[in-house]
Amino acid sequence: MASYAAGARTKFEGRPSTFDAALAALSLVGEVARRHWVEAVATVPDLLAVVSDLPDERMNTTAKRFAVALCAENRRSLSHLLRTMEP
């Protein structure tokens, strides 16, 4: 999943990525705000609770597993970037 997420393309190609925007925004705030957002991203709940409530005719089991895995990978990547960014 990590290699898929890293290579995924978006219709916003050529614009700053979500990760770039988050890092840029956090570079503008103080240490307390930065720590708050690092913790907030790290504690985002799993998407499974949301998608498991969807009826299978709206989202099949494979799509649910994929969405949960992709969101978890994005959360992991963003958490890592935020934890390792320069203050």
Oligomeric description of these chains? single chain
Order of helices and strands: HHHHH
The share of residues in extended strands comes to: under 5%
Report the strand count. 0
Task: Give unreliable regions as ranges.
Answer: none
Distance between the termini: 29 Å
Give the structural class.
Answer: mainly alpha
Radius of gyration: 15 Å
Number of domains: 1
Helical percent range? 55-70%
Sheet with the most strands, sense and barrel status: none
Number of helices: 5
Shape descriptor reads: globular
Whole-number average pLDDT?
83
Structure summarized in a few sentences:
The protein has 87 residues and is mostly helical. It contains 5 helices and no strands. 63% of the residues lie in helices and 0% in strands.
Describe the structure.
The chain is mainly alpha-helical. The chain has one domain. The chain has five helices and no strands. It has helices spanning 2-7, 18-26, 31-42, 48-51, 61-84. The longest helix has 24 residues, at 61-84.
Fold topology:
Layout: H1 2-7, H2 18-26, H3 31-42, H4 48-51, H5 61-84
Helix pairs in contact: 3-5
